[in-house]
Amino acid sequence: MKIDAHQHFWKYDPKRQEWIDSGMEQIRKDFLPQDLKPKLDGCQIDGSMVVQAEESLAETDFLLELAEENNWIVGVVGWADLASAELDLILDRYSKQSKLKGFREVLQSKDSKYFHRPEFIQGLKTIYKKGYTYDLLVYAHQLEDALTLIKQCGEHRIVIDHLAKPKIKSGIWREWKKQLKPISEREYIYCKLSGLVTEADWKNWTLEDFIPYLEIALELFGPDRLMFGSDWPVCLLAGEYEQVYETIEVFTNSLSKAEKAQLLGQSAEEFYQISPLRTSHGPFTQE
After folding, report:
1. CA-to-CA distance for 87 and 95, rounded, in angstroms?
2. Cα–Cα distance, 66 to 49 (Å, whole number)
3. Which residues on neighbouring strands pair with residue 48, listed in sequence order?
4. 3-class secondary structure, 8
5. Cα–Cα distances in angstroms (integers) from residue 277 to residues 28, 39, 184, 194, 198, in the given order
6. Would you state the pLDDT for residue 277?
7. Neighbour count for residue 242 (Cβ, 10 Å)
8. Nearest-CA neighbor of 27 among 231, 245, 199, 164?
9. For the chain, how long is the longest CA-to-CA vector?
C-alpha cells in the first residue's frame, strides 16, 4: 500500500491560520478531502496520514471526523497539550478513536526551554504508554535539543517531520547531517521525506537541489525508517502535488523494488500501525 504520510486539511480562517501570511496566497483557502483525493488517485497512492496544523482539540476532532468519513484517510496525527494536568482525561476521551495514531505540536516555534519542561516530558511518556506516536516538528538548529528530549523519553516511536527542515535553498547540509546522525542511530526514530520543496527556492528548484539531503537521509535511516509525505497543501507554495511526488518517485528508482515499497508506504504502516485497507487500486493484504 502506498501512503502519503504527511498532509493537512483546513477550513481557512485568517485568525486560526495566522501563520499563512500575505505571501502565501496559494494556500489562503479551504483544503478538504475532496481536493486531495484526485491527486492521490493520479499518483496511485492508496491512503494518507493527516497531520494537525492548528494547536487545538477542535482541530483533532475535525481531522478525526474527516477520517471517519473517508476510508482512505488511514490515520490522524492530532494535537493535545501534553503538559496539561488533564492529559489522561483527554486521552480517555479519544480511547475509542482507532484512527488517532499520534500527536504533534509546532515545536519549531518554541524556545529550547520549552522542550525540556518536566511536565512536557511526562506528557510524552504518557502518550507512549497509551500506544501513541509523536511527530517531532523542529528546525535543523533545534536538533541538539531534540536529541536531549529523545534521550529522556525512552525507546519510543518518534518521527522527525520534514528532515528537520535543512537549508536546501542555500545548499548547507554538513552541520545538519552532523546533528541528525546521533538521532538516526536510535533505531526507533524515523524520518519523513516531506516539506522539502518549501525549504528550497520556491520558484527555481530542481530535483538536483534535493539529492544531497535525500542521500544523507537514506544513508542515516535506510528505507525502512523513511517515509514519503507531500506536506500538501503547504507544498503548493513551491510546486504541484504531482511534482512533489515525482521528486521522491525518481529518487527511489535507484532502490530495489522492496526498498522503494518500504519508503513509499510500508514504513508509514509500521510506524503508525495502520490497519490493512481495501484500496481503490485493488485489495491490500499484509504478507
Report:
1. 12
2. 11
3. 4, 73
4. coil
5. 33, 19, 30, 23, 31
6. 59
7. 12
8. 231
9. 49
Residue whose C-alpha is closest to residue 124's, from 84, 161, 180: 84
For the domain with range 3-283, which CATH number is right: 3.40.50.300, 3.40.50.2300, 3.40.1130.10, 3.20.20.140? Answer: 3.20.20.140
pLDDT less than 70: residues of the chain: 277-287
- 231, 226, 216: which is closest to 266 by C-alpha? 226
Domain assignments of the chain as residue spans, ordered by start: 3-283
CB burial class (10 A; 0-12, 13-18, 19+) of residue 6? buried
Helix (H, G, I), strand (E, B) or coil at 9: coil
Cβ within 8 Å of residue 238, ≥6 positions away: 197, 198, 200, 202, 203, 205
- pLDDT value at residue 45: 98
**Residue 283: cis peptide before it, omega within 30 degrees of 0:** no
H and E: helices and strands count for the chain: 11, 10
Within 9-116, strands assigned E span: 47-51, 73-78, 100-105
Dihedral angle, C-alpha 95, 32, 241, 200, nearest 10 °: -80
- Position 287 scores a pLDDT of 29
Pairing of strands 158-160, 47-51: unpaired
| Interacting residues of 56 by C-beta distance below 8 A, sequence separation 6+ | 79
Closest by CA to 222, choosing from 187, 179, 178, is 187
Closest CA to 137 of 234, 264, 215, 71: 234
Separation of alpha carbons 174 and 27, rounded Å? 32
